[in-house]
Amino acid sequence: SYELTQPPSVSVSPGQTARITCSGDALPQKHASWYQQKSGQAPVLVIYEDSKRPSGIPERFSGSSSGTLATLTISGAQVEDEADYYCYSTDSSGDHRGVFGTGTEVTVL
Amino acid sequence: QVQLVESGGGVVQPGRSLRLSCAGSGFSFSGYDMHWVRQAPGKGLEWVSIISYDGAQTYYTDSAKGRFTISRDNSKNTVFLLVSSLRPEDTAVYYCARDYYDGSGHNPDYWGRGTLVTVSS
Hints:
The complex is a heterodimer of chains A (about 110) and B (about 120).
Chain A: E1 9-12, E2 18-23, E3 33-37, E4 44-47, E5 61-66, E6 69-74, E7 83-90, E8 98-100, E9 104-108
Parallel strand pairs in A: 1-9
Antiparallel strand pairs in A: 2-6, 3-4, 3-7, 5-6, 7-8, 7-9
Chain B: E1 3-7, E2 10-12, E3 18-25, E4 34-39, E5 45-51, E6 58-60, E7 68-73, E8 78-83, E9 92-101, E10 106-111, E11 115-119
Parallel strand pairs in B: 2-11
Antiparallel strand pairs in B: 1-3, 3-8, 4-5, 4-9, 5-6, 7-8, 9-10, 9-11
C-alpha cells in the first residue's frame, strides 16, 4: 500500500524556521495537503495543492513540492505552532483513496 | 460557516456494529463528496472512506473493506458510517470531513470534532 513518510519530530526555537518533509512515490503526479493538529483538537488544513494557504492561516506557513518530496515550512515559528503536522495525498491508482503521512511532532522551545 | 457534527460513538463490544452520523451545515451539502477519517489513541490519522456527492460512488481503505459502509442522506444533510464486526483495534476518534478536489485527488478540508468509538468487552 502507498505510504507517505515524515520525520517523527522537529524541534525549533521561537522565531526560527521549521521544515517538515513528506516523501511519497506518487507526489510528482499528485498534490499534497498539510494539516495541523493541536492536542485534543480536530485537524486543521494549513496548506492545499502543495503551496496554497486557506484564508485565516498565517503567512508564516508555506508549502512546496519537488519530485517525490513535499515540504511544509513555518517561518518564524511561534509557541502556538506546537502541534502534530500531517501531510496527505492520494495514491497513483486513482484520485479517491487518501493517505496520511506518518505525522511530525513540532516542538517550539 | 461550515459546521460538521459527528455523533453515534460510544462503548461497544467486539463483534457488534455501530452507525456513526455526521450532520453538515453552512454549505451546500448535496454538492460535496464527504470523507471519514479515524485516529486511534496516541496514533496518527488514518483515511477511512469517501462517498461521492450523490452517493453513487464509495471508496474504502483496505482495512475497512467488507466491514465498513459509508452512505448519505442529502435530504437530511447527513453522512453515515456503519462500522461492523468491530475489533479492539477499531477503537478511535472518527472524524467526518468535507471534500475538496484539487484536480489530482480528493482532500478533506473542513473537519468535525469527531466521535469516540471504544471497542471493549
